[in-house]
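REVIEWER CHECKLIST
Item 1: Sequence provided? yes
Item 2: Single chain? yes
Item 3: Sequence as submitted:
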Amino acid sequence: MPRQKLTATFNEITVKRGEAFDIELKATPSAGYEWSIMAKSGPVTKLRDTFVENSKDDSLIGSPQMHVMTFRAEEEGVIKIELCYARPWESVMRDMKKFKINVEK
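Item 4: Structure as written out by the authors:
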């Protein structure tokens, strides 16, 4: 079964304890922009970061890619994750997303 995913428009899911889930957001890493964790609450482990090209057109230099962050829900309860989209060397944030993950037995 594929992992459940959160996106820019779908920001809440319910998973089982120990289950992995993805957060998928468009990013332009070639321009220096990246999504990073600004805040998180609840028992969650970040497993990996990957970047995926969406289509043929996205293979062009400077085209947006899909930034996929994979997490694992460690315990029952509620996990909240806030991500910011910015260049690490700049103090200006271009975007912020909030996600809620309900974790069941």
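Item 5: Key structural point noted by reviewer: The chain has a mean pLDDT of 90.
Item 6: Recommendation: ____
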